[in-house]
# Entry
Amino acid sequence: MFAKRYENRLNLQKKSGLYRDPPEFDGREDRFLLLGGKKVLNFASNDYLGLSTTEIAGTQVAENFRKFGSSSSSSRLVSGHYSVINRAEEAYASYFGYEAAVFFPSGYQANLGILSTLFEKGDTIVFDKHIHASSVKGMTLSGAAFYGYNHNSMDHLAKRLESCGHPQVAVLTESLFSMDGDLLNVAGLGRLKEKYGFIAVVDEAHSFGALGPRGKGIAREVADVALGTFGKAFALFGAFVLLPRLFKDYLFNFCSPFIYTTTLPEAHAASALDLLDIVEKSEDRRSHLADMSRLMRRRLREEGFKVSGDAHILALEIGDENKAVRVSRKLLENGIYALPARYPTVPLKQAIIRIGMTALHREEDIRLFVDTVRRICDELESRT
# Structure
């Protein structure tokens, strides 16, 4: 009975162009993925500064794991509360301008933990409708009432806030949206925060390290709580939450996803410290990333494509889910990998090719991508 239900749903996914079956890569090298003995140009990576394959990052991380070992072997509240983890959290809090920080094994777990713990029945969360799936799950588990506002619309957010009618309100949004690629209206959110006095929780996973002075993101002036991930610009794994010290103490005592899990190893914290220093000094990489992102956006628009994105995440509009899959497959056949983002990651019938730019990309890579996707789309159009 269960197997039949699963089979039916998978068949429906295939018919609707929503089936997920990622290619199996053999490894990676610089800006390329290795597939069947061939190099494939990678436009699906979140390694925005291009640090994950560098020798300096790899050497320091390897040395930390040799020195500290591979596992903490305990939850944080049992015997995993190591001094190096505390030092790393303090360093991240200081660097980004917050009172405290907490490390989590993943961004998904971090969003799940903070939202399900900090908010409860009787509270209200007003959220941007394009927030990450982990944030949706976290606020659902919280028990709080929640209401969505139209993506990045400060006018609609103001209407939601006006209708809330009580003080226990939080606003949940992102600073750089992971699929749309657009930036939060920080000034607009700030004006509303001053008027309504809500708590702001901002997911800065895609901006920390890559945007703002020294990679500090863009939302500090409005965010009471901010989430970052090590698995993107910081070239590691896991996540960090920046927050008031009182909130950290509260998480230590009441956050189930934090309390009942093995903590990240000491080697991770030591590596996080090393990588923070590297990220701080990577202004040249941030500058090159911005230049390449602007060039890709301009070249695609010159070719007549509809493309959105204010920074290093670009969304190439396709629409039909099956077409998005075909375009992605054709790109891969031509030595380029780019993700076909489909429902429920993006709204139904609004499929995109998500282009992740990195500091490793070059002008010739952009030229190859634009020329190839133009030819593929022309060929598909001629067959319809």
Q: What stands out?
A: The domain at 15-49+283-383 is CATH 3.90.1150.10 (Aspartate Aminotransferase, domain 1). Residues 363-383 form the longest helix (21 residues).
